[in-house]
Structures are given as structure tokens and as C-alpha cells.
């Protein structure tokens, strides 16, 4: 269900509120382009600045707009276990196909605390759970041994979005977790290396505007056309790097405005990127072969 390309979809804003029509249009765009699954309310969806009501609404909109044509993987994590359970239950009740649950941030729990947190969330719902390991934002790494323990004890913990940036850790996860445990890249630059060690796909930032190209790279690899997969990887790499010239999703939203997909509006404390980076980003988009609008 979640193999291939899952897009970590942005949350469009206009005049400080969620632009519901723009979000519906983005879901339609991904269905048309063949995106394998959609993740609302992840890091890229600016979940930290959404109220709980808005968080619930964004997930509901994506489910409504998808009409069952593409799976919805709802971001439902929190640094509070009770809040994570509440958010995950809502997503399940709303019809989400699975939930992405991030490492509890700021609290710095021990591995036993992480185990108990994720198990409590998994025990509260029937839908599949994907762990989200991103120590650069959460200050804690989910050790592979903890993932293996969770996968063994919780039948609905089925995989991990791995964004620690370590191929060594990815290999350990692959080696000690169940064979059907999904290993998904949380970093577009590492999708192809992850596939080469037996990974299953990516939860992607760049797929917000070129999902068909991310899919084509993955499909080429899976069909044994390694040269084509490498060519596509290296073509995307400079653009991937530009999307992180400042903190995600600020450069991404700028790119999407340049491409006419949605406005670049963010919520504080996130703000728009510098003029220098804006110019470099536009050049990277055009060098890739994309046509940008003159505004912004």
C-alpha cells in the first residue's frame, strides 16, 4: 500500500487560514500524476503550527478529495502520548488508511519510553502505523532494536520513515526487523541508495511538484534499469539540495508558487526564503526543465 512514492504534501495557506480548495487541487494533481500515497500533516505539511482542529480538518479534506483513489497516510504524532492517541484515533475514524507517528520531540524519552509510546498508540487503533524517525528534529533516535521490538509486539506497526541520514542504520533496520517491515526513505537524496539495500520507497518532499519523476526513478530501479534510475537520481539531486537551502518547507513552498501550484505562504515562526535563495531556486527549477511563473 505504501511502497513507491508517498508525497509529504504541503498545507496551502491564504490570508493566514488553510486554503481548502488549493489542498483539494493538490490531491487531484497527485492522483492524476500517479503518486502512490499522500501524507498530510507531516513536517512538510507544517503540522507544528496547525491547531488540533486544523490538523483534523486537513486530514479530512485529503480523505474526502482522494475518494479512495489513493491511500492517505495521516501524520498523527505528538510529544504527548495522549495527544498522539487522540490524533491517530481521529484519523482512523475519518477513514485514513494508515498513520505516520513521529518520535516524541523535546521530551528526550529513553528507548523504553519510545517503545511504550508507540505501543500505546498502536494498541489504540486498528490501522497500520509507520514510525517516523527524524532525530535531527526530535533530538532522539529510535534505535533499530526498538523498531524490531515494536514490529514484533505490535502487528499494526508495519514500517518506518527513516530520516536519520544514516545508510548504516538503514541496513541494520533491514537486517533485524521482519522481512515485510517497510523501510521508507525520509530523504529524497537517499531514496536510490535505500532501494539498493532493499528499501521500499520514499516519503518525498520533491514529489510535491515532480511526483512522476520520483516514481519513474523508483520504477526504473525495480525493473532492473539501474542506469536510468541513476540518471534520474543525479538529475534530481541539485534540485533536492536547493529545496533544503533553508528550512523545509519554506524553499518547497516557494518552488510551488513559482510553478503555479499554491502560494508560498507560511506560518510563523517559518518565513519566506531570502531573495538570493529565491533566485537560485528559480534557476535550479529552470535548469531541471520546469517552467516558472514570473511572479514571486
Please give a handful of descriptors for the protein shown.
47% helix; alpha/beta; 8-stranded parallel β-sheet; 12 helices; TIM Barrel
How would you characterize this protein structure?
The protein is α/β, with parallel strands linked by helices. The protein has a single domain (4-225), classed as TIM Barrel (Alpha-Beta Barrel). It has helices spanning 20-33, 52-66, 81-94, 111-124, 135-138, 144-153, 167-176, 191-196, 211-222, 226-242, 250-258, 275-288; strands spanning 4-8, 13-14, 17-18, 37-39, 73-75, 98-102, 129-133, 157-162, 182-185, 201-204. The strands form 2 sheets. The protein has an 8-stranded parallel sheet. Strands 2-3 form a two-stranded antiparallel ribbon. Strand 9, helix 8 and strand 10 form a beta-alpha-beta unit.
Topology readout:
Layout: E1 4-8, E2 13-14, E3 17-18, H1 20-33, E4 37-39, H2 52-66, E5 73-75, H3 81-94, E6 98-102, H4 111-124, E7 129-133, H5 135-138, H6 144-153, E8 157-162, H7 167-176, E9 182-185, H8 191-196, E10 201-204, H9 211-222, H10 226-242, H11 250-258, H12 275-288
Parallel strand pairs: 1-4, 1-10, 5-6, 6-7, 7-8, 8-9, 9-10
Antiparallel strand pairs: 2-3
Helix pairs in contact: 1-2, 2-3, 3-4, 4-6, 6-7, 9-10, 10-12, 11-12
Amino acid at each position: 500500500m505504501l511502497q513507491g512514492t508517498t508525497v509529504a504534501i504541503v498545507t496551502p495557506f491564504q490570508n493566514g487560514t488553510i486554503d481548502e480548495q488549493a489542498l483539494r487541487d493538490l490531491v487531484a494533481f497527485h492522483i492524476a500524476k500517479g503518486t502512490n500515497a499522500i501524507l498530510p500533516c507531516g513536517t512538510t505539511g507544517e503540522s507544528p503550527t496547525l491547531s488540533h482542529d486544523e490538523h483534523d480538518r486537513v486530514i479530512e479534506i485529503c480523505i474526502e478529495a482522494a475518494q479512495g483513489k489513493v491511500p492517505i497516510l495521516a501524520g498523527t504524532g505528538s510529544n504527548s502520548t495522549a495527544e498522539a492517541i487522540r490524533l491517530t484515533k481521529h484519523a482512523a475514524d475519518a477513514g485514513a488508511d494508515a498513520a505516520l507517528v513521529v518520535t516524541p520531540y523535546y521530551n528526550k524519552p529513553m528507548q523504553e519510553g519510545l517503545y511504550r509510546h508507540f505501543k500505546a498508540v498502536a494498541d489504540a487503533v486498528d490501522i497500520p502505523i509507520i514510525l517516523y524517525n527524524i532525530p535531527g528534529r526530535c533530538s532522539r533516535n529510535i534505535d533499530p532494536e526498538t523498531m524490531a521490538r515494536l514490529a514484533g509486539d505490535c502487528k499494526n506497526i508495519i514500517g518506518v520513515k527513516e530520516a536519520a541520514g544514516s545508510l548504516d542504520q538503514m541496513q541494520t533496520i533491514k537486517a533485524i526487523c521482519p522481512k515485510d517491515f517497510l523501510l521508507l526513505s525520509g530523504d529524497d537524496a537517499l531514496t536510490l541508495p535505500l532501494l539498493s539495500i532493499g528499501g521500499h520507497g520514499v516519503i518525498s518532499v520533491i514529489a510535491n511538484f515532480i511526483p512522476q519523476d520520483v516514481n519513474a526513478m523508483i520504477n526504473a530501479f525495480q525493473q532492473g534499469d539501474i542506469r536510468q534510475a541513476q540518471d534520474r537520481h543525479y538529475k534530481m539531486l541539485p534540485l533536492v539540495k536547493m529545496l533544503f537551502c533553508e528550512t523545509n518547507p519554506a524553499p518547497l513552498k516557494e518552488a510551488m508558487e513559482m510553478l503555479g501550484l499554491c502560494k508560498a505562504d507560511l506560518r510563523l515562526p517559518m518565513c519566506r526564503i531570502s531573495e538570493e535563495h529565491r533566485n537560485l531556486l528559480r534557476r535550479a527549477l529552470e535548469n531541471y526543465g520546469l517552467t516558472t511563473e514570473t511572479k514571486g
